[in-house]
Amino acid sequence: MKADLETRIADSFAATLPSRDIAALLAEVTEADQAAARSSEEANKVALDPATRPDAVAAARKVMEDAQFKRLRMENATAGLQKLKSQAEAREAAEIAAKELALATIERDQLAKDLLEYDELSRKIVVLLDRLRASDARIGRNNSAEIVARGGNFDPWFPDLQLGVRLPSFQRGGGNMGYLWPR
Fold first, then answer.
1. Cα separation of 38 and 32, whole Å?
2. Would you put residue 87 in left (φ > 0), alpha (ψ -120 to 50) or beta?
3. Taking the CB of residue 59, how many other CB atoms lie within 10 A of it?
4. Which residues span the domain enclosing 44?
5. Are residues 67 and 124 in the same domain?
6. Cα distance between residue 128 and residue 156, in whole Å
7. Rounded Cα distance, 162 and 148, in Å
8. E-strand stretches of the chain
């Protein structure tokens, strides 16, 4: 059985509810506030009607006072629940950010491991470029192994490997001003 609204409001301040549950509770509080406003208006009409008997006036005043009190409770509940909702949203955003950071950290750590291959691969590329430079010196750039490897297509606007490649050293102290290539 679902607890009455005021009990659920009080319980929400002792619990750690998700923002969507607090938003649903806020919607119920708004409905209760509007119902209390209607009840107060109706009772006010009855209480102020000169044709109403004194005993009915007293009952209407009691309904009106109870409805006004309920409205004040709902206004205070709304303010408190909005604060709780903001806190819940901040908590949820922090949890999402923490999960994202954990995933990003895992990915970063794997990338760091993968980058350890860069040193070996970049050195292999430098050896390949050194061989290409030596071959071009022997056979000429117009008959370069690079042009042959590209199917004989020479495009002066397409980057040349020897001139276009810049490979930074992976660790300090390697190469020319921190570069393995160009040498």
1. 10
2. alpha
3. 15
4. 5-107
5. no
6. 21
7. 15
8. 167-168, 179-181
The helix or strand, by DSSP H or E, that contains position 169, with its residue range, turns out to be: none
Residues 67 and 128 in one domain: no
Stretch 31-47: mean pLDDT, rounded? 95
How does the average pLDDT of the chain come out, rounded? 92
| Cα→Cα distances 108→74, 94, 169, Å | 49, 20, 20
For the chain, the residue count is 183
Q: What whole-number distance in Å separates Cα of residue 31 and Cα of residue 74?
A: 10
173 band by pLDDT with thresholds 50, 70 and 90: low
pTM of the complete model = 0.64
Overall domain count for the chain: 2
| Identity of residue 175 | G
Whether 45 and 100 map to the same domain: the answer is: yes
